[in-house]
Amino acid sequence: MIDFELTEDQKAVCEMVRDFTANEVAPLARSQDTAGELDSALMDAIWQLEIVQSQCEPDGRSAFLAGLVLEELAAGDASVATAVASTMAYCLAITDHGTSDQRQALQESLKAPGFQALSLAVMEPSFGFSIGGLKTEAVASGAGFRLQGAKSMVPLASRCRSFLVVARYQEGEAAFIVPADAAGVLVREPCQTVGLRPLELSEVVFDNVGIPQGAMLGGSNGSNIQSIIDASRTAQACIMTGLSAAVLNHVVPYVKERIVHGTPLAQKQSVAFRVADIRIDTEAMRWMNWRSAWEIETGQNPTRLSALSYSFAGEKTMKIADEGLQMFGGHGFVQEHPLEMWYRNARAISVLEGVAGI
Amino acid sequence: MVDFSLTETDKKLIDLVREENEIGRAFARELDRTMEIEPSRLRGVHPAVADREDPFELLEGVHEETSGLVIAEALMFMASAQDVELRDVGGHEAFGSMVLRNFGTDVQKEKYGHLNLAIGITEPDAGSDPGAMRSYARYDQETDEYVLNGEKIFISFFNKFDGAVALVKVAGKDGSRPEFGTFVLVKGAPGLIESPQMRKLGVRKHELSGFVMQDLRVPAVARLDADFGKTLSNFNHNRPIVSAVALASCRSLLDFTRDKLKAAGVELDYTQGTSGRSALVDRFIRLESLWEASWGTVMRAKWLEHKQGMYSNGYRTEASIAKAMGAKAARDITQGCLEILGPESLSEEYLAEKWFRDVRIADIYEGAGEIQRVLIARDIFGYKKELS
Ligand SMILES: Cc1cc2nc3c(=O)[nH]c(=O)nc-3n(C[C@H](O)[C@H](O)[C@H](O)COP(=O)(O)OP(=O)(O)OC[C@H]3O[C@@H](n4cnc5c(N)ncnc54)[C@H](O)[C@@H]3O)c2cc1C
To answer: Where does the Acyl-CoA oxidase/dehydrogenase middle domain start and stop, copy by copy (chain A) (predicted)?
Structure first.
């Protein structure tokens, strides 16, 4: 039965995260972007909200709620939201698909007092990278596997204690839990990216890394890698919606106040209509994400809708950040406003794959 | 709790509509070619569906088992392209009759309630801007009648219906400013002159004509207690429906395109990223995403309506969003599908080109896309006349 009403609990969580975002996250977005580094006190404070931890408990697991939270966080800073989503992707992949040993091992990280950087390693360093054409490969070797290849754009790679590496295996794909300090793992220096700079995206090389038997996600039966990608696409779409909402909220008061040729920008149709379009597209994105997340939560096959949400959000968010910047003119191009940062972040979050999860 | 599942009854109703639309397909081309020349609109029920349950009639009876009356109705409108009307649903489309039902007195309902009435607002010089209307009514105290002069154009189904509810300006008493007034006009009255049917791009099953009022005299009782706002008060309800109807044709065209691509050996693979799929597939997926995005905005508006009541103004911006989003998506989806399908899609052997023409109206009537954007922007900025 079609219903758009959030539960009281969901509303309360959203409100809590919204307040937190406005007071704690948004004010630090610019300084983190400049430093190219997350604020560790902020990340610890987010960790203490137990967003990730509660999702890993059986009665706390809700892909839908996770999506709501990511949108709220991203309205403050898409980088912070993606950092949280990255750790969440790792933890949820293990929670949802892991063996009991793998889930047990995860508990240690979840109990830590401060933020734990953990990441999927999906993308690879080649232009025109496509998720269907992975080159990193795992082969059975002795009692375990050997992993060979390179992954790129891994969030917070140099801070991660462990990666979940998606690689070709036999006829399909599998994911492997690989500690960062395993022999043959080389985490390169962060590559300094155009957007989402605080994520310190970097390349990780796996040079003939030996992996024990128990490190394949889900054990010998493997796991549904596509569902991890689906969840990432929907999660990224939620982050994009938060970013789009931030643009809308920032643009509205400005265009009402900014007088050009004698009248406020907002009274000029070409501006007003584009603001209307930002609202239309942001709402359309949100409901589509809700539906994808609902499909994930209710155990339906979310592949198609996740791909559509990701595609729609990606196209529109880039456009929204672009139009928002344009409405600020030169003031949008310089760093006194967040538009130029959002413009960079919009491009980044919409071309990455596998950096988030719900 | 947020839920996107359909109830069994929702599904049943959608299936019924889809089956009926499928039956209608057989007559679609003929109607498309002849309708505007020969007003041959069906009266009664077409034999092809005579022994079938009328889905919309059924809805009235079972709406408690649906996601909600207006939600299920929108889902039904979105089911698939409705190329022909196999049932005479006059009452359903008679927006003038709806105004009468909502705002007429018992006496007025008694007098006019049995009529199917069109809605007459648009004029040659006043479409999006009703303030520019020139049609005028003057009260004649001696006969207790109003005398109307003016012209209405683009009036849906006027040729088929019994008359219209017309919105005109009424001379204020003793030279005060004119106000809007609404009158029931019944065909056959001297001075009410019907204009010929108009030829148009698409939705040719949807007949369009108009009328001239030349010293048309109507009794005072023909004036309804409905001002401008009241007359247009079902806009919030209708706008997402306009979107839904266009999306229905888009859905049929997307299905058609998907099938033809498949037959041509093009597989749609949703697991791939942008760079892992052909430009053709990527284009198609983007069009599909527009459809799904629009679906969400229609459902959202209808859900709010379901909660707040049809005449609430509390969902007007969401109704405008659904209209603006779906109507623009319909333009993009149909243009895009024909481009993907290529030259063969131009043939009248298929309905693809018809759907491409049909949906174009959605971004024009019931408030063109630009008007929706004015309304949405006003809501965002807290503006009234500052933006027009
Ligand atoms: C098939 C069909 C059925 C119809 N049925 C009915 C009916 O039953 N009853 C009835 O009364 N009318 C009906 N109409 C009329 C319809 O509502 C009008 O065509 C519509 O309101 C637009 O008015 P217009 O055609 O005069 O265009 P205009 O108002 O001249 O608009 C032309 C263009 O300018 C844009 N524009 C207008 N104002 C602004 C603005 N302020 N800012 C920016 N852009 C603006 C419009 O969006 C449009 O793109 C029907 C029309 C059609 C084609």
So the answer is: 120-209
Burial class (CB in 10 A: 0-12, 13-18, 19+), B321: buried
- Give, in words, the CATH class of B95-227: mainly beta
In CATH, the number for domain A118-221 is: 2.40.110.10
pLDDT tens digits along B267-318: 999 999 988 999 999 999 999 999 999 999 999 999 999 999 998 999 999 9
Q: Where are the domains of chain B?
A: 8-91, 95-227, 234-387
| Chain A hits for B380, Cβ within 8 Å | 252, 275-276, 279
CATH second-level architecture of A8-109?
Orthogonal Bundle (1.10)
Q: Is the CB of B319 under 6 A from ligand 1?
A: no
- Give every CB contact of residue A15 below 8 A, 6+ residues apart in sequence: none
Kindly determine whether residue A3 and residue B377, on different chains, have CB atoms separated by under 8 Å: no
- pLDDT tens per residue, range B65-94: 999 999 999 999 999 999 988 887 666 678
Is the Cβ–Cβ distance between B234 and B119 less than 8 Å?
no
Q: How would CATH label the architecture of B234-387?
A: Up-down Bundle (1.20)
Considering only CA atoms, which of A213, A248, A204 is closest in space to residue A138?
A: A213
Provide the chain A residues 100-129 that lie in CB contact (below 8 A) with chain B. 128-129
Cross-chain residue pair A287–B296, CB shorter than 8 Å? yes
> What distance in Å separates residue B271's CA from the closest CA in chain A?
7
CATH code: domain A225-349 is 1.20.140.10
Closest Cα to atom 7 of ligand 1: B155
Cα-to-centroid distance, B126 and ligand 1 (Å): 8
